[in-house]
Amino acid sequence: MLTLLYKVVRPLLFHLDPEEAHELVMGTLPFARWLAALAPLRPDPALACRVGPLTFAGPVGLAAGLDKDGVGIRTWEALGFGAIEVGTVTGHAQKGNPRPRLFRLKEQRALINRMGFNNEGAIALAANLQRLRDTGHWPKVPVGANLGKSKVIGNDEAVLDYLNSLRALKDRADYFVINVSSPNTPGLRDLQEREPLQRLLEAAVPEAGRTPVFLKLAPDLEDDALAEAVNVAVESGCGGIIATNTTLSRPGETARAEQYGGLSGEPLKPLARQKIRVALQAAAGRVPVIGVGGVSSADDVRELLKMGCAATQLYTALIYEGPGLVARIHRDLLLPGG
């Protein structure tokens, strides 16, 4: 039902500015949750997978970026996601970069965004998460909070900024993600270098207490630098790696697209796969790796799981395929050979 409805609605949404369409969809999430309740979309228990100390209900989770302030968590669970990652959220509420800042590449089934971590701030996200807990609506799948650096904070004060977000969200999220890999905050990716990354993680991991901390890395790192960042994460006590974020490169037919902002979706897939292999080799089974980048089908998920990923995430494919995608992927994984 959701798939058929989206086929009707998508042309209308694609006539709107991408960010206006996103805002419209976010406003209809309670309706989508009601429709999802008419059919079982949650993953079959056979698809449950371990990701460090966490159990994902299925191997397809929601990537950060779609729900920055955690307003649609109940809907994402109803749509069948095995885990839900909200954010990126920052210590300071911020409006993000000037519009337009989100672009569709329809033929390539891709997005380019230069949003700039627009969000209501860590305290507001904490309130939304606590409200779910207080009302008995906390989902049965893990919920992660993806943390970034506030734009008004320099890299020399980045550790304190991340710690402020961690403190606001402590005991509210099931896992944290340290995001040092978005291309849309000036200087952020410099935090992927060994010394600043080590300082950040050695402060963040103890602050998180028993809540696992994951590190999200960029696909634009050279292989040696990516492997070194993974090693720093392991040495610092991180619970896992998320590979990868969006890319500043413009592969294939995207070469003449918007030159500023991170590219996601189908064209990212080859680069993401290459960097995921590097991350897996560097992790060497010491921590789980969640594979992200161009995931849009059961075949993509199978490939990443066979490579050694503990789970996967998607976001962009949802824009093109609609809200029935995740349940369809999970069903396909149960077919012979899945």
What's the overall geometry? globular
Q: Approximately how much helix is present in the residues?
A: 25-40%
Name the quaternary structure.
Answer: single chain
Strand content: 15-25%
Biggest β-sheet description: 8 strands, parallel
CATH T-level fold name: TIM Barrel
- At the fourth level of CATH, the homologous superfamily is Aldolase class I
Q: Assign the CATH class.
A: Alpha Beta
Tell me the domain tally: 1
Biggest sheet strand order reads 3-13-12-10-9-8-7-4
Low-confidence stretches are none
The averaged pLDDT comes out at 93
Order of helices and strands: HHHEEEHEEEHEHEHEHEEHEHEHH
For the CA atoms, what is the radius of gyration? 18 Å
Number of helices: 12
- Class derived from helix and strand content: alpha/beta
> What is the CATH architecture assignment?
Alpha-Beta Barrel
Description:
With 338 residues, the protein is α/β, with parallel strands linked by helices. The chain has one domain (2-330): Aldolase class I (TIM Barrel). The protein is 38% helix and 16% strand. The chain is built from twelve helices and 13 strands. It has an eight-stranded parallel beta sheet with strand order 3-13-12-10-9-8-7-4. It has a three-stranded antiparallel beta sheet with strand order 5-6-11, with no helix packed on it. Helix 5 (122-134) packs parallel to helix 6 (158-169), helix 6 (158-169) runs parallel beside helix 7 (194-208) and helix 7 (194-208) runs parallel beside helix 8 (223-235). The mean pLDDT is 93.
